[in-house]
Amino acid sequence: MSTDGSVGPPGGPARGAALPSAVSLFVVAVFTAGLGLTAAAVRLDGLEVDVALAVLLLLAVLTWWQGSIGLTTNSVSLSFSSIVLVASMALVGPAGAGIVGILVGPMQREKQPWRARLFNTGMFAMLGVCGALVYRAAGGARDAQGLIGTWEIVRLIGIPILLADAAQAVGNLVLIAAVVRLAQGVPMRTQVWRLLVTSGPNQLGYGVIAFILVVLWEPVGLGPAGVVLVLPPLLVARWAFAQYTEEVKGHERALDVLVAAVESKAPHLVGHSSRVAQLSVHMAEFLGLRPAVVAEVRAAGMLHDLGLTTIPTAVVRGEQVWLGDSLHEYPARGARLLQDVGFLAGSIDAITHHRHAVTPGGEGAALGLPALVVGLADEYDLLTEVGSPDGVVLSHDEAMEVLRTLPAGRPDLLRTLEQALSRRASVAA
After folding, report:
1. In CATH, what is the architecture of 21-237?
2. Taking the CA of residue 230 as centre, how many other CA atoms within 13 Å lie in the half-sphere pointing to its CB?
3. Which of 160, 136, 128 is nearest to 57 (CA)?
4. pLDDT tens digits, 276-315
5. What is the pTM of this model?
6. What's the CATH number of domain 266-428, 3.30.460.10, 3.30.1700.10, 1.10.150.20, 1.10.3210.10?
7. Is 323 helix (H, G, I), strand (E, B) or coil?
8. At what angle do helices 93-104 and 114-137 cross, to 10 degrees?
9. Segments in 266-329 forming alpha helices (H)
């Protein structure tokens, strides 16, 4: 799901999964509301088919060509479609903005299920109409061609368009948080906060760029030529985002390589790191941790066993007795391997101490939440999926009984673990 309003599919990463009926009903409701609001705006306010509307519709189509750049770790994106939609609120009114939203919504190059396109279409239409109404309610000029003076432009275009941008951003956050709540069970406040932190600055930037476009179009009098002046900086920004995206993808590839190294030494742990990372992320999100911390928790979950690569293979596989220092100190070994890797600096503590969180008589109370979360996720997966050296695998209830006896087995964290397991099950359904 990208924070510019696109969903693929609603409910998160489980592509092709059967969605709960509540999600489907919500999607249909949003689609119907979007088209209904647009039709009402056309009927009540009228629709002027002019050059501005034609150019904005053309730009809406071009958003399919440029797409948006979504970042895997925090969902930040650069969205031309949002800029076009905000500009339409000032240039073509509620009816025109609604029609632009209807066209922008499904303009996603990546393959998406029909529910996602319906949701996007309805949501963008709703945001366009409502944003344009906010623009007018804030005193936004309907015809700004005669405006002169900085204060007049700021008062009659700048402030109203930023308020409209803020209104549609709030609507965006609430609707996306609602569909994620229905599909995955993530509390709305958690999702809203995550999206606000990651996409809030972007959304403000969309409003500023849209303001510049409107000023160039009307008060300056450039009309469609104003688009030519706005596009080059946007293309430069898009290139910069692309470079950052590649950097993030490089980080992900590095994590995958390190996990593969662990799994090659310990075949019985194949899939363990990814499961721990996923469960840790779900727990961190339910706990309301900041997106940056959630990303650090995920990396720690992926690399919590990296220290095993410093131990002889025969020892790791149980074929030989370890004669060195305590085998339980391997997490610190892994952390030392990563201490100079900048993008993993925030994960070091959780990697180092995650076993202390689940060691009887350990220092659970003194550990931070990331270490406790990763430790619980790790231990639960070891008990229920990996099993003991003798091949004994516990049931869920048996594993929870064991966890209650450990330092990290706080009632609040165990409840969060239960919530995370339910979410994982719904995603995999």
Report:
1. Orthogonal Bundle (1.10)
2. 22
3. 128
4. 999 999 999 889 888 889 999 999 999 999 988 888 777 7
5. 0.61
6. 1.10.3210.10
7. coil
8. 160
9. 272-286, 291-303, 313-316
